[in-house]
């Protein structure tokens, strides 16, 4: 690795450069994190299933490993997504063998929030308070909100309660709403309505987390438009879960190809033989994305990739279905040997 190269140092006057890590990869990538990043996000270790598997029994061991690495490197943490429809144990939604009343769920959210903040507040500069509460398409319960167990029991109010609890116990950290497909116009409008509702209810919401998982060729104009829309709400913006899958160089549609979709079989065949040209295409997409992010440096404060290097990425095999060969996606800024890809030097050169 080129010891003189540093993304974090190069972008010091633009925005933080972050990476999501697990309790394991925080150690594996410690040297890269120290050289290239100045923000860390726990990938799963702050979610309910990891931190409170049973009500009142807190398990912070795995999260502590990440925070220990962050402290050793002098890096602050972007804390991710305690309130999410996935990775939340059944106890949250039950009162004995009956569905929990909304008030009980709110009490549990507050108690959990208090425990997280008492342990980690000194190291956290931002929270993804609520994750992915907007629906992709209208459902039986709502044309705005995801049909989750939270929503089924509480309606939309669980989001307000989560933000107010986090504001109470972490008054110095920034509070974010975080979601994916955030640049698709129909979903963007749903997200905007969620944020405006929170603002109307007097919630402190400081920012919007734009996940930026790219499963298809990016629509750069919609990314720009979305940045402007979210910023117009008076929010700071973080790019929170950036990765560029191999699919983005093969799929010219607007959404991720799924098993059974037209063109999916051809995609798999192509993806199993990644060419240098396809891999270079991932580099090119990163260069264009960062060009956009730099142009909005007045509203973007952090850009986080969802992982560090290609040997550890959630995308390998994601959503491909049973019996479909695992496809290596190569979605990050560092390769499987932990070396920076060509785009890293180019990204640094672009801000000299």
Task: Give a structural overview.
With 352 residues, this protein is of the alpha/beta class. The chain has one domain (7-349): Glycosidases (TIM Barrel, Alpha-Beta Barrel), CATH 3.20.20.80. 38% of the residues lie in helices and 16% in strands. The chain has an 8-stranded parallel β-barrel with strand order 1-2-3-6-7-8-10-11, surrounded by 5 helices. Strand 4 and strand 5 form a beta hairpin. It is globular, with a radius of gyration of 20 Å.
Q: Oligomer, anyone? A: single chain
CATH C-level class is Alpha Beta
Give the fraction of residues assigned to helices. 25-40%
Q: Sketch the major β-sheet.
A: 8 strands, parallel, barrel
Low-confidence stretches: none
Query: What's the structural domain tally?
Result: 1
The fourth-level CATH homologous superfamily is Glycosidases
Q: Which architecture name does CATH use?
A: Alpha-Beta Barrel
> What portion of the residues fall into strands of 2 or more residues?
15-25%
Number of strands: 11
* Widest sheet, order of strands: 1-2-3-6-7-8-10-11
Distance between the amino and carboxyl termini: 20 Å
| CATH topology term | TIM Barrel
- Overall pLDDT score: 95
**Which term fits the overall shape?**
globular
The H/E string reads: HEHHEHHEEEHEHHEHEEHEHHEH
> Whole-number radius of gyration?
20 Å
Structural class: alpha/beta
Number of helices: 13
């Amino acid at each position: 690795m080129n010891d003189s190269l540093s993304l974090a140092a190069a972008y010091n006057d633009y925005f933080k450069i972050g990476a999501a890590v697990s309790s394991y990869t925080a150690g594996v990538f410690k040297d890269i994190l120290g050289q290239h990043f100045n923000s860390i996000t726990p990938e799963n270790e702050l979610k309910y299933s990891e931190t409170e598997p049973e009500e009142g029994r807190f398990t912070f061991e795995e999260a502590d490993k990440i925070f220990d690495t962050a402290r050793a490197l002098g890096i602050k943490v972007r804390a991710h997504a305690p309130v999410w429809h996935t990775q939340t144990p059944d106890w949250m939604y039950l009162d004995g063998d009956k569905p929990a009343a909304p008030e009980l769920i709110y009490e549990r959210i507050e108690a959990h929030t208090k425990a997280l903040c008492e342990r980690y507040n000194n190291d956290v500069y931002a929270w993804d308070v609520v994750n992915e509460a907007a629906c992709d398409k209208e459902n039986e319960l709502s044309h705005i909100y995801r049909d989750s167990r939270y929503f089924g029991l509480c309606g939309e109010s669980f989001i307000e309660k989560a933000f107010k609890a986090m504001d109470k116990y972490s008054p110095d950290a920034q509070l974010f709403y975080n979601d994916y497909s955030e640049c698709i116009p129909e979903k963007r409008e749903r997200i905007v309505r969620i944020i405006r509702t929170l603002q109307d209810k007097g919630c402190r919401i400081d920012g919007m987390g734009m996940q930026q998982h790219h499963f298809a060729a990016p629509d750069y104009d919609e990314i720009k438009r979305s940045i402007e829309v979210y910023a117009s709400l008076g929010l700071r913006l973080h790019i929170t879960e950036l990765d560029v899958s191999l699919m983005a160089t093969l799929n010219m549609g607007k959404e991720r190809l799924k098993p059974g979709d037209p063109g999916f079989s051809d995609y798999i065949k192509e993806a199993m033989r990644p060419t240098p040209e396809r891999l270079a295409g991932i580099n090119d997409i990163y260069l264009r994305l960062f060009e956009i992010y730099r142009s909005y440096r007045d509203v973007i404060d952090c850009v986080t990739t969802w992982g560090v290097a290609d040997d550890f990425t959630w995308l390998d095999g994601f959503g491909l279905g049973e019996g479909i060969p695992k496809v290596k996606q190569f979605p990050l800024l560092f390769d499987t040997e932990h070396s920076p890809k060509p785009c890293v030097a180019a990204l640094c050169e672009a801000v000299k």
